[in-house]
Write a structure and sequence with these properties.
The protein is α/β, with parallel strands linked by helices. The chain has 9 helices and 19 strands. Pfam families: AMP-binding, AMP-binding_C.
Length: 358
């Protein structure tokens, strides 16, 4: 389905419930509806409804357009779920900035239905979509990516393996930082080319700070100038730049030492990407968690989907974690789960997955 925001009277008749929901939102936006209720993804807790005003959503869309130099007439591919903030804000950007939108129901490889003659200026993916596209190694799909002004990747962290693989893309690729409460992203991090960095840069007008835990708080027009306090632990390098270290509610206390599982995950991902003997693809999903332990309080474990680590990989991963983070950060056990539980947006539901451990 293609929607031209300058000609709503020529919008097509929806052929699926998903297209009907998409058109319902777009029509509500054009009717000047003053507020919209969206739901959080549920990745860090129970999904909850959040009301966002039209002014907040418009401010976010305009700021993204300014940051990425999007102009009226630039074609956008909308392949994120429009029932959640990331997909909804792709629609709002299209409607507000005058971007003709090709709407696709979310799939693993959104570019599979196009050929190299297709041209988009802007899109947003979740990491798994971009990973799937790159694994296909299709020159026509790479050509589509390389015509874009900007590609956003959000909804989950990008792995070192994915960040290495996407270096073949010449268009700017950015990791996003944001949430429903901040009306999508409020900061970007360049992932490819000479400008690649591990530091997020806040968009213009976004004020950052930290609380006593070192967790980020955000104030901007998109938050209606209310301070939004997050549970994300950051290293704030100055007033507009930060490194994301992990979530406070994921911190593991093992033997009195606080360990951030995200940092352990990054190291293991790097080891996996360079370990040819791994039994299965290097992109196999896993996460690090803390399980109750009588002696340590919590012991650090790795939960992996569908296949165990080979012994050599496990030993190497432990050694590298020990070298880089210290002995208290070394995972003690590996648990294999057939399939990870997921949230409605496809993120790993860690609590539900842990409950599946035999």
């Amino acid at each position: 389905m293609i929607l031209d925001p300058t000609a709503p009277d020529r919008w097509p008749t929806p052929q699926t419930p998903y297209e009907a929901d998409t058109l319902a939102f777009c029509n509500a936006w054009f009717s000047d509806q003053p507020a919209f209720t969206l739901h959080t993804s549920g990745s860090t807790g129970t999904p909850k409804p959040i009301q966002l005003t039209r002014a907040q959503m418009r401010a976010s869309a305009q700021l993204t357009g300014k940051t990425l130099d999007l102009k009226a007439g630039d074609a956008a591919l909308v392949c994120l779920n429009v029932h959640y903030v990331a997909g909804v804000m792709m629609l709002v950007r299209g409607l507000e900035l005058g971007l003709p939108m090709t709407i696709l129901e979310p799939s693993g490889n959104p570019l599979a239905v196009f050929n190299s003659t297709t041209s988009f200026a802007f899109t947003a993916f979740v990491p798994l979509q971009l990973q799937t596209i790159l694994e296909h190694n299709d020159p026509e799909q790479l050509a589509i990516l390389n015509k874009m002004k900007a590609i956003l990747v959000g909804g989950a962290a990008t792995s070192p393996a994915l960040e290495e693989a996407l270096q073949i893309i010449t268009s700017p690729v950015y990791a996003t930082y944001g949430m429903t409460e901040t009306v999508s992203h409020i900061a970007l991090r360049r992932l490819n080319g000479p400008e690649a960095t591990d530091v997020f840069t806040a968009l213009d007008g976004v004020e950052l700070g930290t609380d006593e835990r070192g967790c980020l708080h955000i104030t901007s027009a998109a938050t209606n100038f209310d301070r939004i306090q997050t549970n994300d632990i950051v290293e704030l390098t100055d007033q507009t730049h930060f490194r994301l270290l992990g979530r406070a509610d994921r911190t593991i206390n093992s033997g009195g030492v606080k360990v951030q599982p995200e940092q352990v995950e990054l190291i293991i991902q790097g080891v996996m990407a360079n370990f040819i003997a791994f039994d299965g693809p290097a992109t196999r999903r896993f996460f690090v968690a803390g399980l109750p332990d009588e002696r340590l309080g919590q012991r650090i474990v790795v939960v992996v989907e569908n296949a165990a680590f080979q012994p050599q990989l496990w030993t190497l991963a432990q050694d590298v974690v020990r070298e880089k983070l210290g002995s208290y950060s070394v995972p003690k056990d590996v648990f294999v789960v057939d399939h990870f539980a997921e949230t409605p947006t496809g993120k790993i539901d860690q609590k539900a997955t842990i409950a599946r451990i035999p």
